[in-house]
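[job 4471] stage=fold_predict status=RUNNING
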Amino acid sequence: MSFNIDQKQHSLKDVELLLKSGSKIVLGEAAKERIVKCREYLDNRMRSQKEPIYGITTGFGSLCNVSIGADDLSALQKNLVMSHACSLGEEVPEEIVRLMLAFKVKSLSYGYSGVRLETVERLVDFFNNGVHPVVYQQGSLGASGDLAPLANMCLPLLGLGEVNYCGRRYTAAEINAKFGWEPLTLASKEGLALLNGTQFMLSFAMYNLYKAKKLSSLADKIAALSLDAYDGRIEPFTPGVHAVRPHSGQMETAKNILAYLDGSQIIQQYKQHVQDPYSFRCVPQVHGAVKDAIRNIEQVFTTELNSATDNPTVLPDEDMIVSAGNFHGEPLALNLDFLSIAIAEIGSISERRTYQLISGKRGLPSFLVAKPGLNSGFMIPQYAAAGVVSQNKQLATPASVDTIDSSQGQEDHVSMGANAATKCYRIVNNVEKVLAIELMNAAQALEFRRPLKTSPVLEEFVGKYREVVNFIEEDEVMYVHINNSVEFLRNCY
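[job 4471] inference complete, writing structure tokens
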């Protein structure tokens, strides 16, 4: 399984490849040629240009007016990486570090960054050998690039910092010795190229998007099961209803629900109630709006994936080196906030369906146990879901509306896209838990409809689920079942 970095425009489907164990990066010949061409141009330009070039012959940020002598250009880049390695907090999961490595290689491969080929190839070596630099989640402002986390990621190139390899923590010196790698001595511009860029927030963004799409799809299936277990009505999913309000996500969701419930004995039986609560009746409108949001967000994230985002931008064909702002994370920040809000809504409406299932209505016992009172049944899993949903509402507060001055006012507007990315990561994982709890409740409620059966598709789904989570006759330790339910959902994608 190879992620080929050449002239191809990559998509989320390609990114999924990077998340699979054993995947490799292949740096194409065209990409290598672009990298070499850009570096040669930069070297030639530096020999002839007398004016200062930001970050190459000057200091960084507000120190841009400080000139650096030719003998100190390499030390300047090393100092940059060391001094900027200030990420802190929780460790970035290894699967996201893998994306960071791959996306940095891809961004540098366009030949607008001025790095040497050997530097890019060392990043490829890290990825292909499962060497994952230790990076932490806090410290980036989402502008000037993801400076702090990318600096931590790049420290091992210099023989500094730490890495994870085969389940163990190593110093960079140890891992370099293990593979016979010499620490790199950075040339002019290289440290800045490695640290400038949006690869930290982009990696979280693509991972969050991947998981959000899977959860959005699973939410339809779980909602259909809940609707049937609740003895709900099928009429709100009639195609004609959605044709008069033709949002594509809404129509898709209604179609999915109808397909999942095709052949159900429960859905076909006579209903005494006229209407279902919103959490059932409005699934197409809510789940569908999330689908539409995800589609729009995916376009933005994919554009960023196929971009060069460091500074200054080296343009060999135009004979220009331009200090600009492609490192600014605003496109990602806004859409990460949007994704947070959208996927949080999947969790919010899911918890409401769970609440309805345990409420003792529609012929179901209170808290979904045969002897409520003696048994609390599914009372507290709903509490847990509600607590997580409440936390999501707090986490979904936009990060992108904030900015803080940095670098003595030189960097006076930042995106806070990195905070948006890590918040969204927590929300997505929280929604997975909420859906897992809904599935527990829906599968439990279904048993009280026997001998009637739901659709063949959902019966098969529940049958597989019962291999890992059993029907609850009397009170048991519930967190074990919740964790198993979460794991079941993960195995679904």
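[job 4471] summary: Residues 199-229 form the longest helix (31 residues).
[job 4471] exit 0
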